[in-house]
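Why does residue order matter? Because the sequence determines the fold. Keep that principle in mind as you read this record.
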Amino acid sequence: MRAVRGTPIFIVVLPLLSSVCLAQLPSSGCDRSGSTLADCASFTPSKTIASEVSSSRTVAFDPGTGFAASSESTTDRDRDSGSGVASVSGEKKGFDWGRALTESFTFLVIEQAYVVHTDFNWVVVENGIPFNHYARDYGQSLTSWWHAGWSAGEDPLYNYVGHPIQGAMTGYIELQNDPKYEKLEFSNTKVYWRSRLKAMLWNAVYSTQWSMGPLSEMTVEKYGAKARPPWNKDGSLPCDTKTCYSGVGKVNLVMTPVGGLGWMLAEDILDKKIVEQQVETRTQNRFLIDAARCSLNPIRGGANILHGRRPWYRVSRDEPNLSLLEPPQHAVSEEKIPRTQIPNRGDIFFGYTHLSQSHCEVPVSGAPKTCNPLSAQASILNGWTLAYERKYFRYFGTVFDVGQQYGGASQSNYLVGIRGGASLGRFRPFAQVLFGAVDARFSGPSGTESDLTFAEDLGVGVDIRLTRLLGWRTHVDELKTGSDSFERYNVRVSSGFALRF
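Structure:
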């Protein structure tokens, strides 16, 4: 197990985001009054809608439902709750399967991006094509796993720390999509333990897919397949001892759900006993409260980000009690409201792109290697990039990226992936992971050479808002291509206009 090393990405992001906290309410008195969870109608004091809802378009009262309906954006606090005021209804909502699966898949893409980056040579070992001989290799990997030992040669740090982190993340994903349990805090009650056991079940299904499913370590990194057969304890090949190591052990199926549950319980206890009962009862300083929440609940914070909430958000203490809100007295028609809201559904980017010097490595050892003629020519290229992003969550969007660079060779990029970022005033820093293909062509004395290879692109950047619709984007990426015979790295720098919609 190697990709769980990508999980702490969220932990790095949390302290950066905690500096832009909003004035959320401290813990309610309901929990401290000694009342049971069933007796508490809400976790925060009620307020009038004027103090809870702020919109660039006027809020109107819907007499059909008895609740306020916002015709445009609500405050960040309402958005943090997962929906605006308009989504409130008297009907009970069930588990949100679609969003839970999408959040889990987003997390899977982030983890697999790290796998592909660190074990790129194994991803493309079969003639430079990922998932080549998929059915054959998958069957061999399952057979090798069955005969492998408990750990199968994995680093204990991954087994007993990384996998519990992965399990806690997916457990919180399940909880935050279940309205029945998302407000529960730590307590020795049946409903609390039932909620955590359900989260562990979701965690177990995710971890099983991660270890041996159709998009798992077995299929992506080809552990135990013909191209990556089991090895001896000392790392030598072929395996000629009784115990062979395949890289994916049975420990994963146990430690991820069990360790994940333990990690969740630890964060729940810290949040209840220290953050809520010690910090929040002694200070109203939002920075201190949010910093304590993030530092003591880093994995919950990562799940919050996937859900479109700030990492320090707590449903039990921050969500307004919408059922007690008072409706406004006046409403304004849609036509009379100015369209001043900044579009945030996605953007189209077009800009200049520079591709740096090529660097090549030996696939297995990672040692420097002289680039082949085509890779050597695919250096210091200049051209353009066109990218389209469509948001599907508050902080995440799907990206389609195409481009062309020219120079000693011509190169075309065809990439697709995800981008995650948060707006901080006029700035939106982001990170992205893209997968696809690169087609390089070079005309030399012996004729035209061409090579179409799998590619991975990892990068960071920033958008600067210039006007309501227009921004300026700059991003820097590492573009990795190659096959079973070589790996090539190029730094890709792009800068240009981004039109929001």
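Residues 3-16+95-315 form one domain.
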